[in-house]
Amino acid sequence: MSKFRKLFKNKARRNHYIVGIVILIATAFSFILFIQRFAYISMSKQYDGVNLEQKTKQKYERVTKVNAKRGDILDVNGDMIAGDSTIYNIYAIVDHKSKTASGKADYVVDKDKTAQVLSKYLSLSKKQIKKYLTPASKKQYQVEFGPSGRGLSIEIKRKITSKNLPGIHFIELPSRSYPNGVFATNLVGITKADDANDENSNISGVMGIEKYFNKVLSGKNGKQITKVDKNGNELPGSQMVEKKSSDGSNVYLTLNSKIQQYAEILAQTVEEKYEPKNLQILVMNAKTGAIEAATQRPTFNPTTGKGLSNSWRDTLVEDQFEPGSVMKILTLSASIDSGNYNPDQLYQSGTVEVGGRTIGDWNTAGWGYIPLSEAFTRSSNVGMVKLEQEMGSQTWMNYMKKFHIGQKTGVDLPGEVSGSISYEHTSDQAMTSFGQSVNVNTMQMLQAFSAIANGGKMIKPQIIKKIVDADTGKTTKKFKREVVGQPIKASTAKKVQKAMRQVVTKSYGTGIVYNVPGVKVGVKTGTAQIASPNGGYLTGSNNYIFSVAGMIPYNDPNYIVYVTMKQPQKMTESAEKILSEVFNPLVKRLVSQGKSQTDSVEAGSQYVNVPSLLDKSTNSALSKIKNLGLQSGVIGTGDKVVQQLPDSGQKVMPGQRMVLLTNGAMTMPDLTGWSKNDVLKFAEITGKKVTTKGDGYVVKQSVEAGHVINDSGKIIITLKNK
Fold first, then answer.
1. Other C-beta atoms lying within 10 Å of the C-beta of residue 16
2. CA gap 40, 34 in Å, rounded
3. How far apart are alpha carbons 314 and 312 in whole angstroms?
4. Is Iron-sulfur a UniProt keyword of this protein (predicted)?
5. Helix (H) or strand (E) holding 291
6. Based on the number of CB atoms within 10 Å of its own CB, is 323 exposed (0-12), middle (13-18) or buried (19 or more)?
7. Cα separation of 196 and 181, whole Å?
8. Residue 197 — pLDDT band, cuts 50, 70, 90?
9. What is the pLDDT at residue 410?
10. Domain spans of the chain?
11. Looking at domain 607-718, does it have CATH number 3.30.2270.10?
């Protein structure tokens, strides 16, 4: 028995020993793993993918971003086109636990009063605002007011702040100001915020100069670092570490505000009267290539965004089109320069067969047998085909290449298209001589025309005058005249200039309507067919791209003016007459530059600076609007103005309508006679859903004048042409 006990004890002792060894080994192994893990964390400062050093810094450091000021965009004289600005988003705290530092209530105490006050400044009714202030969840800390509470101006913010409403706060957001309103808008471009609700968000260019020079304009953000305790309170005596921001550079354009503003007025007038699907007006300094004015229609207001959905590109470089008869400037140049031009040679005008296709003059009956010297002046397609055939297709192609047709100009704008030349068939080769079967952009044509203006030297269009570092004031890039080729001789250029003058002065010239008394203008007119999506070309008297290119003066050009108009929907006048309503007054303005203002420019053609009418009495505001030569429209029964469109600081054309929103009940005005643009202003300032039917001017409205419209639902407006 004792032997058995002894054996049992020995076995138990051995088991204890084994267990002890195992525990010892496990403990040692765990300790080794712990040491390794600790060493790894110490060296890498990482745990579960989390950077512990950064986590600690985040807890005990407060990092505040210092936004760099975005550079300004200015005209050739330093006048502001685009600059830094601030907008505000409004929000309301509804949590009753929220207190100010002094212990006062920092939440909406009186919902009725708050809703009543805010309804005067936001395009929301008192009922709608009160609904926002009463969220479904009682745990909700704060509420916003949808699109109507975003992008508020400093004026509206100040008005609301002055009412001292508990719980009402604002988020300050970086923005972009365009004080001139519609002003080369598609060329200058716009910006967009990375996050429309984040005060630390950046803005970046999404179109035009704003996009092309985004990096230059943006600068580099800085930051401020302060030490805080675990509760986020700044530690006493701690030093703030600051990395300074570097402001963006200022970009000076070649645009001349006086010429540009006048071009905008002319463009707007033509758009309203004739409703073209597209309109372009360009003015280039013939000596330097500087673009002094450039506008298009449709366009949009960069401040309100109205029209943006129909004009999301810069057609001056992003659209390509068949130029039509203005191409004959290059055809005549090539024919003369290559030694193949015989002005006295007779040809049968009217129609000609080329490659199985009949090509006709605009006057299909023709003028009988006429000399080639009249082909350009009469804008004869058949005559141009004759010149192309005399040169030979290869020679003509070589000249088109010399004029850089089908090549990008490299102008400092995003999205430029190169265009193309269709040259496979004999008929296509012939058609390029009068501007069909060839696609160009507007800048390409201006560049090509410059060779005729500069003794054969072709000048690249330029839109940038200089770039100036905002911190040092030093110019980092400067505009300079750039010759990009010499496709023709100086003697050829002189002959083409004289031919362009004859288009205006000869009794059979197609450009007589462009004769400006006292100015030696030379022009070439153009009418280009528009390709049909179903093949061939569209038919109809207005389905063309009409154009005019002019040299001012013809024999020593200072300016090149190029106007194109596509498919006017209200063609109540001839295409030449419509274009002359832009070209002729613009030429008068150009030749008066540097001189005292004369009667050559119509009275009242200057822009009107919109004043601030907020808080003015309704009667005094209406009197002010009348004195400025503007129309007015009043919404509401109140005696004081609480909102206005357009906003103060904008520039508008004489005769445009200012829409005022007053305090008191929001009532429907009588819209009879208002234009569609005016109706859009009404919709924007009221925030109501408005549907328009037809075009022209208002003849009918679904909500009667004087009716309260806070809860009226959809409003239907019917328009008709006069």
1. 10
2. 10
3. 7
4. no
5. strand 291-297
6. buried
7. 22
8. low
9. 95
10. 1-33, 62-182+194-203+220-247, 257-593, 607-718
11. no
The CATH number of 62-182+194-203+220-247, from 2.60.420.10, 3.30.300.20, 3.30.70.2110, 3.90.480.20, is: 3.30.70.2110
Cβ–Cβ < 8 Å for 582, 274: no
Burial call 711-721: b when 16+ CB within 10 Å, e when fewer: ebeebebebee
β pairing state of 142-144 and 276-285: unpaired
Distance CA 685, CA 148 (A): 10
Q: How many angstroms separate the CA atoms of 709 and 702, rounded? A: 11
Task: Indicate which residues carry an active-site annotation.
Answer: 325
Question: What is the C-alpha to C-alpha distance for residues 286 and 443, in angstroms, rounded to an integer?
Answer: 13
Q: What is the SS3 assignment for 11? A: helix
**In sequence order, what are the beta bridge partners of 51?**
46
pTM as predicted: 0.73
Q: How far is CA 50 from the centre of its chain?
A: 44
pLDDT in tens, 455-500: 999 999 999 999 999 888 899 989 889 999 999 999 999 999 999 9
Q: Which fold has domain 257-593?
A: Beta-lactamase (3.40.710)
**Structure token pair of residue 185:** 């808008």
Q: What is the pLDDT of residues 287-309, one digit of tens each?
A: 999 999 999 999 998 877 888 88
